[in-house]
Write a structure and sequence with these properties.
This protein is α/β, with parallel strands linked by helices and 260 residues long. It has two domains: 111 residues, 3-Layer(aba) Sandwich (D-Maltodextrin-Binding Protein, domain 2), CATH 3.40.190.10; 112 residues, D-Maltodextrin-Binding Protein, domain 2. It is 42% helix and 23% strand. It has eight helices and ten strands. The strands form two sheets. Strands 2-1-3-10-4-8-6-7 form an eight-stranded mixed β-sheet, sandwiched between helices. Strand 1, helix 2 and strand 2 form a beta-alpha-beta unit. Helix 2 packs across helix 8. It is globular and about 60 Å long. The protein starts with a helix and ends with a helix. The relative contact order is 0.19. About 2% of the residues have low confidence.
């Protein structure tokens, strides 16, 4: 009776060992999780430069590219801490350094590198009901500062103007305020949105709405009048020299720009 019992135990042990070996083999053959590179910055710059190449970059590299809209004023600290691998923005490195110094934080410029990666073209978005073919710089300034409150004043329908604005996208806003509003503040009462996707949706939804966004966000249903376009250079900023993955990203951005 003992021999069959011992034989059963041995068979069971062999099965357990074989099972463990098979499990180890399965674990060993599983592909490693891809590395993650996090790119922060303004919504417009991310939309214009990073989003168009994200899918191709991830197909060509074992890397997951994550984009996050940075909280204004935190960009250099996030780069320095390593929580961001790079920042793309229409704001230059020198401007970031100046802003930080004004807030009491002084960074050594030698810590960072800046590479131009493209251009962001800001256009005006109108609700479909606002059938206006062209808006001058003077008219845009009046609309976005609140001096003009009805579309009738600029050749449109007798409807109240509703400004849609994304406070978080300070890079694009800064260029528009400087070049179109000539330094004046945007109207204090506006519909606040978190990003350009939400801005476009609100402009489509709200009668009499107007907003600004990158030209790549133009889609069916949004009217873009013949108006002054605001072009801003987009830069990519890293702590020290760009990492190998970021260098590959830069090469891809350059290739796409060349093809276009």
């Amino acid at each position: 009776m003992k021999q069959p019992f011992l034989l059963a135990i041995m068979v069971s042990a062999i099965c357990v060992i074989a099972g463990c070996a098979g499990l180890q083999k399965d674990v060993a053959t599983q592909p490693a999780a891809p590395e993650v590179v996090t790119i922060g910055g303004g919504d417009a710059a991310l939309t214009e430069v990073i989003i168009p190449v994200k899918e191709t970059f991830e197909e060509e590299n074992p890397v997951r590219l994550v984009t996050v809209q940075s909280q204004p004023g935190t960009e250099l600290a996030s780069l320095a801490s390593g929580s961001l691998g790079a920042v793309v923005s229409t704001i230059s490195l020198d401007s970031f350094l100046e802003r930080a110094a004004e807030s009491g934080t002084v960074w050594d410029r030698k810590m960072f590198r800046e590479v131009p990666v493209g251009t962001n073209e800001t256009v005006v978005f109108l609700n479909q009901g606002v059938k206006i073919k062209k808006l001058t710089k003077k008219q845009l300034k009046g609309i976005f500062t609140g001096k003009i409150t009805n579309w009738k004043k600029v050749g449109g329908p007798n409807r109240r103007i509703v400004v849609v604005w994304s406070p978080a996208d300070d890079g694009e806003n800064e260029a528009f305020i400087e070049k179109v509003l000539e330094g004046e503040e945007v109207v204090p009462k506006f519909v606040s949105v978190a990003n350009v996707e939400e801005m476009r949706a609100k402009v489509l939804e709200i009668p009499g709405a107007v907003g600004i966004g990158p030209s790549v966000m133009v889609s069916r249903g949004v009217r873009v009048p013949g108006s002054l376009e605001v072009a801003s250079s987009v830069v990519l900023i890293t702590k020290g020299e760009p990492s190998p993955h970021v260098q590959k990203l830069l090469a891809l951005i350059k290739d796409v720009a060349f093809l276009n």
